[in-house]
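Dear H.,

Thanks for agreeing to be a second pair of eyes. The structure we're designing against is below in token form, covering all 323 positions.
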């Protein structure tokens, strides 16, 4: 029977995890699917989450829970879950219930309806998203940046609610970088991607951990890790500035030979030095960002090294203790 792995990164969640596990198992009974639920805990220091996950592993046979040794971020949590997945097809979703479990069959049907497709991003109608306005605006800007810098097809939107083939999953796991973005890795790996529209729920428990700072960091990582446009832009600007400088020098020399000129003023010298000095610093700064990422790439950890040793409780022993 076809096995579908559902990978869910977890950060300080409790009640929502119980709801997800319950709804997925109800869906499995109702539709006859075979699901494997993989929770990856990115908040190992948060005892309530650890306890909740341990209880879910005991309660449901198809639930697995893994904890990272330390907080590594959502993207690494997803990658670790992808590596542990044993399914024929892999789904990923968030832990906050904003991705409705009832929409999973829609993803599966859409995937099997198109033999050419390798991944599907499930996205809500932009006007019906339940995020804050600033986050919706940030997502809009990110999408425009992806089209320009990552050569993402126009009209394709990224999402953390997605399904992919196991072959694509293995490609991503084997080719991630030091600061990964799973959706960008998918886009870099295949052109056979499409969107489907789904519902989007409001967050039921707690507050979002998605901040402006994280949005900026994510944007910067996407820009520098998956695109060489900034380096090419600096090279182009450098060429244009060099040409402009040569023309300016020729102008000064010709003007002096024909009409003569006074000693250049202090303001002109300071302006030119400031302009070119600033340009140099900008170029060095961008190159420095690339160098930082090259260094981190050399220190890229293995996914297995990020996970704690499996400490899944024995179901039989746990059930005996309850009675």
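And this is the sequence the design step returned. I haven't edited it by hand at all.
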């Amino acid at each position: 029977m076809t096995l579908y792995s559902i990978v869910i990164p977890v950060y300080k969640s409790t009640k929502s995890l119980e709801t997800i596990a319950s709804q997925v198992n109800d869906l499995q009974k109702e539709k006859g699917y075979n699901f494997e639920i993989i929770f990856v805990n990115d908040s190992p220091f948060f005892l309530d989450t650890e306890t909740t996950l341990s209880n879910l592993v005991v309660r449901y046979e198809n639930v697995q829970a893994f904890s990272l040794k330390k907080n590594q971020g959502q993207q690494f949590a997803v990658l670790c879950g992808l590596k542990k997945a044993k399914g024929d097809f892999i789904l990923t979703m968030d832990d906050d219930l904003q991705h409705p479990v009832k929409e999973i069959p829609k993803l599966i049907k859409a995937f099997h309806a198109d033999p050419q497709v390798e991944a599907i991003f499930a996205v809500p109608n932009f006007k019906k998203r339940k995020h804050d306005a600033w986050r919706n605006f940030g997502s809009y800007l990110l999408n425009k940046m992806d089209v320009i810098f990552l050569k993402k097809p126009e009209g394709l939107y990224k999402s953390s609610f997605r399904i992919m083939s196991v072959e694509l999953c293995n490609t991503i796991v084997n080719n991630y970088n030091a600061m990964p973005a799973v959706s960008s890795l998918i886009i870099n790996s295949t052109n056979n991607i499409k969107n489907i529209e789904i519902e989007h729920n409001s967050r039921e428990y707690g507050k979002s951990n998605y901040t402006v700072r994280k949005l900026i960091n994510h944007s910067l990582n996407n820009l520098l890790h998956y695109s060489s446009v900034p380096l090419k832009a600096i090279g182009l600007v450098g060429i244009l500035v060099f040409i402009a400088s040569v023309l300016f020098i020729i102008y000064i020399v010709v003007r002096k030979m024909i009409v003569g000129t006074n000693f250049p003023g202090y303001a002109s010298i300071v302006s030119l030095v400031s302009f070119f000095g600033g340009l140099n610093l900008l170029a060095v700064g961008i190159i420095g960002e690339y160098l930082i990422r090259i260094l981190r790439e050399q220190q890229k950890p293995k996914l297995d090294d990020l996970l704690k040793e499996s400490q899944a409780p024995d179901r039989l022993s746990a059930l005996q203790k309850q009675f």
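Two observations from my side: The longest strand covers residues 4-10. The mean pLDDT is 80.

Warmly,
E.
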